[in-house]
Amino acid sequence: MRVLGLLSGTSMDGIDVAAAELDLAGDTVELVPLGTTTVDYPPPLRERLVAALAPGGCDAAELCRLDTEVGECFGAAARLAGDAELVASLGQTLHHWVRDGRARGTLQIGRPAWIAEATGLPVVADLRARDIAAGGQGAPLAAVLDALWLADEPGTTVALNIGGIANITVVGGAAYDTGPGNALIDLAAARATGTAQDTGGRLAAAGAVRADLLDVLLADPYYRRPAPKSTGKEHFDADHLARALDEVDPVRDVDLLATLTELTAVTIARACRAEGATKVVASGGGVRNPVLLRALRAHLGVPLVVSDELGLPSDGKEAYLTALLGFLTWNGVPGNTPSTTGAAGPRLLGSITPGSGPLRLPEPATRRPRRLRVRPGHSPEEASCVPSTSW
């Protein structure tokens, strides 16, 4: 079936959309990438979303408005992507509640009713909550795709995603958030230039790593916590950065960007080395930062390849993951990996909002998939998704 995957990551740049053909044959899922796009949020909406994050304030009225407006944006993005039979949405995360190392709740906004109304299609959404209710971390859900997709890779392969938060999946082993990916870099870039992105690592390349600040940042207890674990921008936020800066002499903007880029590289590399990685397959927005990739390669000491080299577009990988999760739920297949999230067992993820017609689910699959095969996608002119768009 043809499935659309939608999400907006912790960087809150916009909505990532991927269209995929998915087929379950025996114990193998076949995924054909059909195209991806990113639809930018209207700047005023993005500003309100950022302001709603902790430690900012967001009352019930504003939360209701944001939930509706994000849902409308997701519905419009899905309509841009063309024909499909199912939509899966990871929504926009506003808060991931972790207490004493255990995830207690998670909030993704962008109500699926708006997507269903805009497209007429059934929507699988709220994909994290069931894993958390079963005692898991609810993240990173990428483990299910990575474990299936890279199952036949030799050695100890680690899949890395660098979004606002960085996470890794050890094929056949643990999966967890390593700490900030772009989150602190984006904060520092916004402070320096007014734009929440260090495009091409330009600012970091002009600076030098401040060892004193790096030591303060690395002292955060999250990095020493054992897996399974998860985190978010409610932890690695502006207050976190301000407290670290208060402990050192004044830091130039370019040196701050260089140090935060080094922090991301060091914390990812330490986690990968601790897992005995022999190869790292990277995806996410961070792979477009050449300064970060150079630092990562220097600290890893093992080959690092970008997921595009293995047939899965790095920019769209999380959206393809979302499509896969929706497809698994639709076919009655659990979408979590209890050994990595810490959940009590396999669980069907999410809830289903009917489209314009009656809800007709297929017979549940009788076998759980053991691998995922990515087949070549359609030619660009046949791809379902339009180029990057703004509202």
General description of the model:
With 391 residues, the chain is of the alpha/beta class. It contains 13 helices and 14 strands. The chain has helices at 43-52, 60-80, 112-119, 129-133, 142-149, 183-193, 202-206, 211-218, 238-246, 253-274, 290-300, 317-330, 338-341, and strands spanning 2-8, 14-25, 28-40, 86-99, 102-109, 123-125, 157-162, 165-170, 175-180, 279-283, 304-306, 351-353, 371-374, 389-390. β4 (86-99) and β5 form a beta hairpin. α10 packs across α11. The longest helix has 22 residues, at 253-274.
Spell out the blueprint of helices and strands.
Elements: E1 2-8, E2 14-25, E3 28-40, H1 43-52, H2 60-80, E4 86-99, E5 102-109, H3 112-119, E6 123-125, H4 129-133, H5 142-149, E7 157-162, E8 165-170, E9 175-180, H6 183-193, H7 202-206, H8 211-218, H9 238-246, H10 253-274, E10 279-283, H11 290-300, E11 304-306, H12 317-330, H13 338-341, E12 351-353, E13 371-374, E14 389-390
Parallel strand pairs: 1-4, 3-13, 3-14, 4-6, 7-10, 10-11
Antiparallel strand pairs: 1-2, 2-3, 4-5, 6-12, 7-8, 8-9
Largest sheet, in brief, is: 9 strands, mixed
Computed over alpha carbons, the radius of gyration is 20 Å
Low-confidence stretches: 379-384, 386-391
**CATH domain fold name of the largest domain:** Nucleotidyltransferase, domain 5
Task: Name the average pLDDT.
Answer: 92
Strand residues, percent: 15-25%
Number of helices: 13
- Classified by CATH, the class of the largest domain is Alpha Beta
Structural class: alpha/beta
Order of helices and strands: EEEHHEEHEHHEEEHHHHHEHEHHEEE
Q: From the 3D coordinates, which CATH architecture of the largest domain would you assign? A: 2-Layer Sandwich
Q: What is the total number of structural domains?
A: 2
- How far apart the termini lie comes to 28 Å
Shape assignment: globular
Total strand count, please? 14
Helix content: 25-40%
Please, what is the CATH homologous superfamily of the largest domain?
Answer: ATPase, nucleotide binding domain
GO molecular function, one term: kinase activity
Keywords: ATP-binding, Carbohydrate metabolism, Kinase, Nucleotide-binding, Transferase
Protein name: Anhydro-N-acetylmuramic acid kinase
Pathway: Amino-sugar metabolism; 1,6-anhydro-N-acetylmuramate degradation; Cell wall biogenesis; peptidoglycan recycling
